[in-house]
C-alpha cells in the first residue's frame, strides 16, 4: 500500500490486469448557507488524473456532488509489478496532492 497526505492506494492482480483501489481524504463539501445567512463556500476536488508509464489512464472532472472521502476503483491492463503510477488531484480552492507509487 502507498500513501500521501490525502490518498491511499492498494493494488491487486487479477487475470492479467491490475486492480487499483484509491481512497481519498477530502471534505467534498457543496456551498451551504445557514439559517442565519452565513455562507460556507464549496470545497471539492475538481480534477483527478491517473497516469501509468506516461500514459493517462483516467481523468475525472468532479464536483460537489461527489461524497466526502471518495473511493475510486478500476482495473487496467498492460501493467507489471514495479511499474510507476502517478495520481494527482486539484480542488476548487487551489489545493493539490500527488502520489507516485510502485505497483
Helices and strands in order:
Blueprint: E1 2-3, E2 7-14, E3 17-24, E4 32-33, E5 39-40, E6 45-52, E7 55-61, E8 71-77, E9 84-91, E10 96-102
Give structural notes.
By secondary structure, the protein is mainly β. It has one domain: Immunoglobulins (Immunoglobulin-like). It contains no helices and ten strands. It has a four-stranded antiparallel beta sheet with strand order 1-2-3-8, with no helix packed on it. The chain is elongated and about 55 Å long. 17% of the residues are buried. The model has no long low-confidence stretch (mean pLDDT 95).
Task: Give a quick precis of the structure.
With 103 residues, the chain is mainly β. 0% of the residues lie in helices and 57% in strands.
Terminal Cα separation, in Å? 9 Å
Output the CATH class name: Mainly Beta
Strand order of the largest sheet: 1-2-3-8
Number of continuous helical runs: 0
Q: What is the CATH homology-level superfamily? A: Immunoglobulins
Major sheet attributes: 4 strands, antiparallel
- DSSP E strands, number: 10
- H/E series, N to C? EEEEEEEEEE
Q: Runs with pLDDT <50, length 5+?
A: none
Query: Beta-strand level of the residues, as a percent range?
Result: over 45%
The level of helicity is: under 10%
What count of structural domains? Answer: 1
Q: Which CATH architecture would you pick?
A: Sandwich
Overall pLDDT level: 95
Oligomer: single chain
Shape: elongated
Provide the gyration radius in Å.
16 Å
CATH topology tier name: Immunoglobulin-like
Amino acid at each position: 500500500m502507498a500513501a500521501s497526505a490525502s490518498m491511499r492506494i492498494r493494488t491487486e492482480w487479477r487475470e492479467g490486469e491490475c486492480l487499483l483501489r484509491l481512497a481519498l481524504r477530502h471534505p467534498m463539501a457543496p456551498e451551504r448557507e445557514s439559517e442565519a445567512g452565513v455562507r460556507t463556500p464549496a470545497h471539492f476536488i475538481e480534477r483527478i488524473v491517473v497516469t501509468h508509464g506516461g500514459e493517462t489512464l483516467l481523468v475525472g472532472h468532479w464536483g460537489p456532488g461527489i461524497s466526502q472521502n471518495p473511493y475510486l476503483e478500476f482495473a487496467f491492463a498492460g501493467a507489471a509489478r514495479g511499474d510507476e503510477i502517478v495520481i494527482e488531484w486539484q480542488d476548487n480552492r487551489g489545493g493539490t496532492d500527488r502520489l507516485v507509487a510502485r505497483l
